[in-house]
C-alpha cells in the first residue's frame, strides 16, 4: 500500500517504456513457444506515477504462448517501499488471449498484481483488460480499457473501490531505420488508490532504437496530478525515462 495512496502498475506496462525487444519466441513443440527479456529503466513510471521515487528499476518478463492465442506471462520489477506497504518488488501474473484478424489484433485477459513482502497489508488485486490494435502502414493505433472491479486493496477508506483506465497509443516505425516513435494518452477514473483518490490524465512521447535483441529508449512522461512521496519528491510531475533492454 502506498502509504498515503496506492499506485500500482499495469505493467505489461502500457505506460512506461518497457523496452525488451520482441525476439523470436523459442518453439517448444505442440504449439507452445516461450520468450522473455530483462530491462533497466531510469524511473519505473506507471500511468505517469513513479513507483521507484524517480530512481532506477530492474525489470524482467517471461511469456509462454500457444498457437491458439492463449498466453501466460510473469512480469516483475523492483519498486520503492512506499508503493506497496514496505514491499520492494512487484509481480504481475497475466493470463490472456490474443487473436490477429487481418491488420487488427485483439488482446484481452486478466492481470493479477502481487506484492511480496508488503508487511501483511491488503495490496494484491485483479484487473481484467482489453486492447484493440489496428495497423495502418507503418503505424499502429492501440486502444486499451482496464477495469479493476471493487476490491479491498483499492479502498481509500470507504470500503471496496473500483477503477477504470482508458488509454490510446500510437507507434510508428520510421522507414529504413530501426527507430520507432511512440505517443500515449491515458485517463484514470474512480476514487480508488489507483487514481490516488481523484481522476487524472497521463501522457508521454518517446523513441526507441533496436539492434538484434537489444533495445534502448527515451520517453518524456507527465501528468496533471501533483503527488509527493514520503521523501518529498514529486513523483507525478514531468520527467524523462531512459531504458535499456535485452530480449531472449
Structural class call reads: mainly beta
Quickly count the domains: 1
Give the second-level CATH assignment, the architecture. Beta Barrel
Task: Please give the alpha-carbon distance between the first and last residues.
Answer: 33 Å
What's the arrangement of strands in the largest beta sheet? 2-5-6-7-8-9-10-11-12-13-14-15
Please report the first level of CATH classification, the CATH class.
Answer: Mainly Beta
The total of beta strands comes to: 15
CATH topology (fold) name = Porin
**Corresponding CATH superfamily:** monomeric porin ompg
Number of helices: 0
Average pLDDT, to the nearest integer? 89
Low-confidence segments, ≥5 residues, pLDDT <50?
1-22
Pattern of helices and strands: EEEEEEEEEEEEEEE
| Radius of gyration over C-alpha positions, nearest whole angstrom | 17 Å
Helix share, percent: under 10%
Q: What proportion strand?
A: over 45%
The major beta sheet can be summarized as: 12 strands, antiparallel, barrel
Give the CA-based shape.
Answer: globular
Amino acid at each position: 500500500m502506498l502509504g498515503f495512496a496506492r499506485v500500482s502498475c499495469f505493467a505489461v506496462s502500457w505506460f512506461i517504456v518497457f523496452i525488451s525487444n520482441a525476439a523470436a519466441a523459442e518453439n517448444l513443440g505442440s504449439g507452445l513457444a516461450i520468450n522473455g527479456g530483462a530491462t533497466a529503466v531510469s524511473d519505473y513510471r506507471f500511468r505517469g506515477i513513479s513507483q521507484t521515487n524517480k530512481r532506477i528499476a530492474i525489470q524482467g518478463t517471461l511469456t509462454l504462448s500457444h498457437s491458439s492465442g492463449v498466453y501466460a506471462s510473469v512480469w516483475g520489477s523492483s519498486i520503492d517501499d512506499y508503493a506497496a506497504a514496505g514491499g520492494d518488488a512487484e509481480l504481475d501474473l497475466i493470463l490472456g488471449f490474443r487473436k490477429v484478424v487481418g491488420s487488427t489484433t485483439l488482446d484481452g485477459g486478466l492481470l493479477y498484481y502481487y506484492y511480496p513482502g508488503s508487511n501483511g497489508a491488503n495490496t494484491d488485486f485483479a484487473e481484467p483488460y482489453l486492447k484493440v490494435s489496428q495497423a495502418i502502414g507503418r503505424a499502429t493505433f492501440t486502444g486499451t480499457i482496464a477495469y479493476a472491479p471493487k476490491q479491498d486493496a483499492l479502498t481509500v477508506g470507504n470500503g471496496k473501490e473500483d477503477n477504470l483506465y482508458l488509454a490510446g497509443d500510437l507507434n510508428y516505425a520510421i522507414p529504413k531505420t530501426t527507430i520507432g516513435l511512440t505517443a500515449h494518452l491515458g485517463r484514470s477514473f474512480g476514487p480508488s488508490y489507483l487514481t490516488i483518490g481523484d481522476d487524472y490524465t497521463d501522457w508521454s512521447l518517446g523513441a526507441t532504437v533496436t539492434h538484434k535483441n537489444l533495445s534502448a529508449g527515451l520517453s518524456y512522461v507527465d501528468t496533471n496530478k501533483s503527488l509527493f512521496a514520503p521523501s518529498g519528491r514529486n513523483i507525478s510531475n514531468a520527467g524523462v525515462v531512459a531504458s535499456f533492454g535485452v530480449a531472449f
